[in-house]
Each structure stands twice: as structure tokens, then as C-alpha cells.
Amino acid sequence: MNKNLWGDQGVAISLSMVLLMGIILVVLIRGGSVKIGPALVAVLFGFFLASSSAAPDINDALDEITESISEIGT
User: Which residues cross the membrane (predicted)?
Assistant: First the structure.
């Protein structure tokens, strides 16, 4: 079971991360650092990774990192 540390805020953080990663990917493609082929492979890798058995562990690790970062300023 995937336990979210922030309740509904976890959804906002997930959507923010998706948006941020999407913007970074677009900038890298437009800047010529990443071609469209490798970018498509990276997107498909992320899509399939999200549906794998490793997804809950990755989400837990990202939740812990996000919580640690948010506690730095307090």
C-alpha cells in the first residue's frame, strides 16, 4: 500500500513534478541537448516504470526526499 505523507498535497506534488519534468524535457529537446528519439524512449521508460513493482519504492523514496527538503527551511 502506497502511504502518502501529505494526504492530498501528495497529488499536487506529483503533478508539479510531472509538469517540471515535462518543461525540462521540452527545453532540452528545443535546445538540441536531447533528440526526440531518446526523449521518447525516456518517456516510455518512465511510463512503464510507473506501472512496475518498483513504483511504490520509488514513490516512497521521492516522498522522503521531498519531506527532507521541505524541513530544511523550518
Answer: 12-29, 36-55
